[in-house]
Amino acid sequence: MTSRSCPAHIAVDHFLMGVMRSIASKVIEKRERAEDALLQYGGASPNAPLPPDAALAFAERADICRRSIEKIAEESPTTQAVVDGIAHGLCGKALAAFANVDQSDLATVRRTIKRRVASIWTKLAELDDAA
Q1: What are phi and psi of 76, to 5 degrees?
Q2: C-alpha to C-alpha distance for 86 and 73, rounded to whole angstroms
Q3: How far, in Å, are 8, 41, 49, 54, 55 from residue 45 at the CA level?
Q4: DSSP codes of every residue in the chain
Q5: Per-residue pLDDT tens over the stretch 83-119
Q6: Tell me, what's the pLDDT at 46?
Q7: What does 42-80 look like in DSSP terms, one character per residue?
Q8: Angle between the 52-73 and 103-130 helix axes, to the nearest 10 degrees?
Q9: What are the distances in angstroms from CA 77 to CA 16, 31, 84, 86, 118?
Q10: Is the dihedral of CA 27, 37, 45, 64 positive or negative?
Q11: How far apart are CA 39 and CA 128, in angstroms?
Q12: What are the phi and psi torsion angles at 8 (to 5°)?
């Protein structure tokens, strides 16, 4: 569970409260970092309109991502079913049932998708650097 050990002079319930508080603060910090990254990516406000050139670049990038995901999904019916299930918000056992695979095969398909998407992101990053 954790590598923390309770000192002898501290009551166990006080120690556990401190551990839970520490874990909760880490979760809150992680959530705040994610929100900060989102706001930094989206500008001052997530609903703020983008300048025309940034909107065009965003639309082009979104189109490249969409086509790349479609290309990955077309490789096999199982991959296509997993991508569709993820698009519907499914995960875990529900996703495995939707894609008609067992959990270990689902993990394999997801890793394959992640590797292919990572290579696409690398290519997009290279395009950003070139621009």
Answers
A1: -155, 155
A2: 11
A3: 50, 10, 9, 15, 15
A4: --S----TTS-HHHHHHHHHHHHHHHHHHHHHHHHHHHHHHH-SSTTSPPPHHHHHHHHHHHHHHHHHHHHHHTT-HHHHHHHHHHHTT--HHHHHHHHT--HHHHHHHHHHHHHHHHHHHHHHHHHHHH-
A5: 888 888 888 888 889 889 998 898 998 898 888 888 8
A6: 54
A7: H-SSTTSPPPHHHHHHHHHHHHHHHHHHHHHHTT-HHHH
A8: 140
A9: 48, 35, 10, 14, 21
A10: negative
A11: 20
A12: -65, -30
Which of 61, 41, 37, 38 shows the shortest CA–CA distance to 50? 41
Is the separation of the CB atoms in 79 and 112 below 8 Å? yes
Q: Which residues of the chain have pLDDT under 70?
A: 1-2, 38-48, 127-131
Query: In sequence order, what are the residues at sequence separation of 6 or more whose Cβ sits closer than 8 angstroms to the Cβ of residue 99?
Result: 78, 81, 82, 85, 106, 109
CA 70 to chain centre: 18
Encoded tokens for 122? 């690398």
Residue whose pair of structure tokens reads 């590598």 in the numeric block: 3
What the block records as the tokens of 27 is 């979760």
pTM (whole model) above 0.70: no
